[in-house]
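User: Is it possible to get a 3D structure for a protein together with its bound compound? The compound here is cobalamin. I've pasted both below.
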Amino acid sequence: MAILDEIKEAVVDGETDEIEELVQQAIDEGIDPNVIINDGLIGGMDIVAPLFRDGEMFVPEVMEAADCMKLGTALLKPLLGDAGMETKGKIVIGTIDGDLHDIGKNLVVLMLESNGYEVIDLGIDVEAETFAQAVEEQKPQIVGLSSMLTTTMMQMDTTIKCLEDKGLRDQVKVIIGGAPITQEFADEIGADGFSKDASACVELCDSIVNAA
Ligand code: B12
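Assistant: Yes, that's possible. Here is the predicted structure of the complex:
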């Protein structure tokens, strides 16, 4: 079996003991780290997603798949390189209040950092007030909100309103993303940008900082 397929399968099976060895093997075979992430690790999560939705995989198993993603991306991070690059801008990011999903956000962070951005990651389950405080203290050009649950995605609207209430909205561009998020939703809540994946997020941030 080709190594990328083995990585995919290891993510689906939650093989936390094997994933690092497999990713290292792919690196040793000279496969581009971005390809290992997109076609190997994310390829695995793409198989997990419908299984979870259809009740064929359960939370503990999906957590193991998530752990594989973390172990694999940690090995690849140094290879994506950011050393010596001049900082393009500062970004505060987090998963919104009530939401514990962080795989996608972590990939966004990884891609932004390896493309020369300074990223302050507030983690998961981040309250609107905490985003506002970080904007006030860190003075980023961009704040990124991640959401995977339709039940809590309106917290993005709450966060934008909180920035408005504190007089911080004009100082920062708000970008949003996550599986249920669309451009239409971004327009509806007055976000400045949306992207469907981590690579597109880098392009979005580049266009925002270049326009400033
Ligand atoms: C993994 C997973 C989990 C893991 C999370 C582990 C972790 N550390 O993240 C666990 C098992 C903990 C979990 C829990 C739950 N989950 Co869940 N989960 C998933 C799953 C299968 C995959 C998500 C994922 O990691 N995808 C892979 C990454 C790479 O993709 P991504 O997250 O979309 O990120 C990309 C883009 O969206 C974008 N992006 C992401 N963030 C941002 C931010 C910005 C600023 C930008 C620009 C772009 C951007 O770039 C990313 C990289 O390319 C999805 C299924 C799905 N279709 O998404 C369900 C899913 C999101 N979960 C769901 C549910 C219901 C739950 C639970 C309520 C289940 C339960 N009964 O307990 C809990 C909720 C816990 C909580 N309060 O948050 C539902 C949500 C349904 C809905 N309509 O809201 C989904 C859709 C599954 C389903 N039913 O189909 N889950």
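The pocket of cobalamin is lined by residues 42, 45, 48-49, 52-53, 59, 62-63, 66, 98-105, 107-108, 144-146, 148-151, 175-180, 195, 197-198, 201 (CB under 6 Å). The chain has nine helices and five strands.
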